[in-house]
Amino acid sequence: MKWTSGGRSPNLEDRRGAGMGAPMGIGGAIILLVLSLIFGRGILTTATDVTNQEGGEVGLSPADSAREEPMVQFVSFVLDDAQNTWQNVFERAGAPFQPAKMVLFRSGTMSGCGAAQSAMGPFYCPLDEKVYLDLDFFNELDRRYGAPGDFAQAYVISHELGHHVQHLLGIDSRVRAAQRSNPQNANELSVLLELQADCYAGVWGHSAAERGKLSPGDMEEGLAAASAVGDDRIQRSTTGTVNVDSFTHGSAQQRATWFKRGFDSGRVDSCDTFGEG
């Protein structure tokens, strides 16, 4: 991907030196996050001590800071570029756009939706309008999921920002209300929400391509990343079996298809997963 290092985004919040300590197990973390998002509140109490969690690079060694700084600047670039794209989309529609914040952390921190743990992977919390990311996830994306490349990383960021767009449009709150009313459809609705965020990521990718920001092979990196985090791929790699009824994000094929739809069209109205649900 063609990008220019230009420092840090004003919407970037660095907490990498202020973790919460030992992370909880991945199962508990995922359950916590899902419950927090569905019920619209943090499951953990807010009494957890988060003093100095916004203190920047406290405790981050100079060597680690220097090693990660190019990645921090890349994340900042994608964050600003994607949100500038969405601001233009909203302005053309005559609607206000409030940018999301992105929190970089290590191991664990607190979010408006409860505890954030590295094991969750990147996620968007609608209650504080922030994306949470441990940079180590990008190593996992490469080594564990087989999706290397900077545009694969950009896909991850733009997907989470797609959830912010859904939040500003009121889509996520309507989905959570529907999940509470019809718990038997909760997983299906979650899949549709995630696929729409994939499509929104593609809309930004289309804009980036039009502006000459992409390099040869970037589109393939994005598709590979979308496929790599499909429910069927993850289930097969972790349990050896696939249970379609338990999908919450969509299959590898679905995720790649919707990302490509947004990328090919560049139009928000092409991302109506619920209309085709």
Euclidean distance between termini CA atoms: 33 Å
What overall geometry do the principal axes of the alpha carbons give?
A: globular
Number of beta-strand segments: 6
Which structural class is indicated by helix and strand composition? alpha/beta
Instruction: Pick out the low-confidence regions.
Output: 21-58
Strand order of the largest sheet: 1-2-6-5
Mean pLDDT value: 86
CA gyration radius, whole angstroms: 18 Å
> Which percent range fits the helix content?
40-55%
Largest sheet: 4 strands, mixed
Along the chain, the helix and strand elements come as EHHEEEEEHHHHHHH
Number of helices: 9
Bin the strand percentage: 5-15%
Topology:
Elements: E1 12-15, H1 26-39, H2 62-92, E2 101-105, E3 108-111, E4 114-117, E5 123-125, E6 130-133, H3 136-143, H4 150-169, H5 171-181, H6 186-210, H7 218-228, H8 231-239, H9 252-265
Parallel strand pairs: 1-2, 2-6
Antiparallel strand pairs: 3-4, 5-6
